[in-house]
Design a protein that fits this description.
Helix content is 35%, strand content 27%. It is an alpha/beta fold and 108 residues long. The protein has one domain: Glutaredoxin (3-Layer(aba) Sandwich), CATH 3.40.30. β2, α2 and β3 form a beta-alpha-beta unit. The longest helix is centred in the middle third of the chain and has 16 residues. The chain is globular, with a radius of gyration of 12 Å.
């Protein structure tokens, strides 16, 4: 697996997230979003710390509205936690690392 977040699009969402057998944290963000920028370094650290066990993915909601709409993303950042292609948890807002990591561990 990856030591850095992978970028997902509407075109490869199925393959990158839903077809992934293991846990996936999908960060729904946009470049203009200040809180999204504050969460980004946390996700970079988690991608490195959990490399080989969890996939951390990023979806730019401005460029990929189909997937964002499919999951009802209305506020960003929103983090979606998947396991075996199923949505297990959703966090909205710039939440602390401890909360993100606790949700990540819960789906491992």
């Amino acid at each position: 697996m990856h030591r850095a977040p992978v970028h997902v699009t509407d075109g490869d969402f199925e393959a990158q997230v839903l077809s992934e057998p293991g846990p996936v944290l999908l960060d729904c963000w946009a470049p203009w979003c200040g809180p999204c920028r504050s969460v980004a370094p946390i996700l970079d650290e988690l991608a490195s710390a959990y490399a080989g066990r969890v996939k951390i993915a990023k979806l730019n909601v401005d460029e990929n509205p189909v997937t964002a709409s499919r999951f009802g993303i209305q506020s960003i950042p929103t983090m979606l936690f998947f396991k075996g292609g199923r949505l297990m948890q959703k966090l909205v807002g710039a939440v602390p690392r401890q909360e993100i990591e606790a949700n990540l561990r819960a789906i491992m």
